[in-house]
Amino acid sequence: MPIKKTTNGIKVEVKPCSAPASANKRGCCCGEFGKKIIATLIGILLVYVIFYLGTLINNNIKKYNYIGKADRATQTITVTGYGKVVGSNDIAITTIGYSNTDKDVSKAQTDNKKVMDAVMADLKAMKIDEKDLKSSYTIYPEYTYDSSNVRVFSGYKVSNQVTIKVRNLSNIQNVLALASKYGANQISGLSFTIDDNDNLKSQARVKALIDAKKKAAVIASSLGVQLVGVSNYSEYEAKDYASYSYSDGLGGSGGTASQVSAGSNTVEMNVSVTYEVR
């Protein structure tokens, strides 16, 4: 409602800002709007100031944490470890094949196929999986030289070989007997090896790491320091998985070994470990 004031005996009505449609309202509202703008700007400014101070403090903390560390060399000790695992050979590998020559290339291929088809049929009858059979087939012209040193075509030579991985070691002699059974004229000696090399390698690695850690602990104790982490690691096999070979009694005539021992192999691992100490 209007406020009555007396000035020099004259009554004046002063209307508050809430009075409708008055010039005084426009002046009051403009003042309130200005205050809101100023308050908003101050709020935004405060947010930026807080953000800036936070970033500045964080950067200073990082600088403090890294002061002097760039020039400080990391203290380490490096040791080697050795591990060995002995495993029994569990597969045998051999190669059986047949080669023949004929001036008629078609006949040479047919004669060769007859022999090798019989060999393959017996291998499958022994339940040797196809994934354990790897074939190699070649055909090329052959030449000889007469008394005048003139090259003379003698025919086409066909060679067909199959490398066999025998997982059931009781089948070894039956496999070798196929050469003489069907007249295969190519046969290699037996070799024995370990099928799951990775498993033995993992076991040898664990032993080598244990050996390395024991050495590092002894050295750290002697130096009066503590092991705090690993900064570098490398490994290598001391030797490859050497296969045990047997060739006595095996030749082009297809002879078989009366007694064959699969034997064993040694898997050896060397590791090099660098430890950080403090």
Backbone CA Rg: 46 Å
Order of helices and strands: EEHEEHEEHEEHEEE
At CATH's second level, what is the architecture of the largest domain? 2-Layer Sandwich
Low-confidence stretches: 241-249, 251-258
User: What is the CATH top level name of the largest domain?
Assistant: Alpha Beta
Shape: elongated
N- and C-termini, Cα separation: 83 Å
Name the CATH homologous superfamily of the largest domain. Protein of unknown function (DUF541), domain 2
Question: What structural class do the secondary elements suggest?
Answer: alpha+beta
Q: What's the domain count?
A: 3
* Biggest beta sheet summary: 6 strands, antiparallel
Assembly state (oligomeric): single chain
Would you tell me the overall average pLDDT?
A: 83
Q: What is the CATH fold-level name of the largest domain?
A: Alpha-Beta Plaits
Name the helicity range: 25-40%
Strand content: 35-45%
Count every helix, treating DSSP H or I runs of 4 or more residues as helices.
4
Strand segment count: 11
